[in-house]
Design brief:
The chain is α+β, with helices and mostly antiparallel strands and 103 residues long. It contains four helices and seven strands. Strands 1, 2, 3, 4, 5, 6 and 7 form a seven-stranded mixed sheet that branches.
């Protein structure tokens, strides 16, 4: 149920550390995406509430392609408080959406 997903409010998304995906990281972790922001660390709240795990690669925020950790942070800051956010992430070679709201 999308309404239920969108209702999940995330007070703080700053509880994460992102690093820009490099060719070395892609090779080491078997990432298929050409570019993105690797979730290096995430708080328990982010991993439990949003199911965003360390090792996930954020490749898109809403319709904005993510080429670096800075892109992801900028997009998340921009959309915070402006309505639903959809992240497109890669995990173990599969891409999937995560929907949430930052209040």
């Amino acid at each position: 149920d999308l309404a239920e997903l969108a209702a999940q409010s995330v007070p703080v998304l700053r509880e994460r550390e992102l690093v820009t995906l490099t060719p070395a990281l892609r090779a080491e972790r078997g990432v298929r995406s050409e570019a993105g922001a690797l979730v290096y660390r995430a708080s328990d709240r982010i991993t439990q509430d949003l199911q965003i795990l360390p090792g996930d690669v954020i490749v898109q925020v809403n319709r904005t392609a993510v080429r670096s950790a800075e892109d992801a942070s900028r997009a998340l800051d921009y959309y915070a408080g402006r309505g639903p956010i959809r992240l497109i992430c890669e995990r173990e070679g599969q891409t999937f959406p995560i929907d949430f709201v930052i209040r």
